[in-house]
Amino acid sequence: MSLKDFLELIKVRILVSSLLTTFFGYAIALPIHEWNGSDVFWCLLGSGFIFSAAAALNHVLESDFDQLMDRTKMRPLPTGRVLKSWVIVGVISFLLLGSVVLFLKSTGLVLINGLLVFLLYDFVYTPLKRYSSVNTLVGAIPGAMPLLSGWFVVHSSFSFIIVLLFLMLYLWQLPHFYSIAWIYRKSYEDANLIMISTNDSTGKRTQFYLGISSIFFVISTYLPLLYNNLGGIYIYIITIMNLYLLVYVFKFIVNVDDKIAKKVLLVTIFYPPLIPIVYILGKMIYG
Questions:
Q1: Any residues with CB less than 8 A from the CB of 1 and at least 6 apart, and which?
Q2: Radius of gyration for the chain, computed over Cα atoms and rounded to the nearest angstrom
Q3: Predicted TM-score (pTM) above 0.90
């Protein structure tokens, strides 16, 4: 197995984003001067193994569908570059290793949350794509849950701020994945996977859901300001991002076009890394 295939199997870009989100959950839970490098390291290491196992198992579960889609047919399993049995061994190994690390070095809630991400992603969201476009609404739950892993390193209960941030990360995924669903609608239809864009030849349904979800997401980005000092830098950056997003979403509503949908997708990609970075910078600058 090549390094490229390995990184693709663990979906390294999603993994990095998930771990950054996990760190964000930890960062929001404590003042900077109370951060503990050891706690962060073990949480990210154990969670990283479990998230990687979830990603690799997704490749196994969807290998038959991947070979039907232009955007996925060159993945390691459909092409035969990697044996499915080896990936399954890797999934079990990573899942066990991550669970042991979190059990010994982190908290029980972090372990439970990580395992829930694994279960919801692979055994609820993944099969649901074959039956209903509701899969996007369901899949956004495990997509936002890494935030809670970082939070549970410090706390054993929820606070309003973490609920608001979870809501924001949940809602972010909707315009992100609705734009993907439109761009790759033919591939999804070829694989008989049901997305919001399925049988939506005019784009009206996709326009509606993309527009509504984007409005709710933009509103959600400002709600944490009511309960936590994220700093002026957060307001400036998030407002610029939101304006770009709304402009391209409006353009898509006016004119259904793949190029505009790709612009929407591009803007949404920047939110997950930027929000934690901007928050941390704001804490350093404003205290």
A1: 76, 81, 82, 86
A2: 19
A3: yes
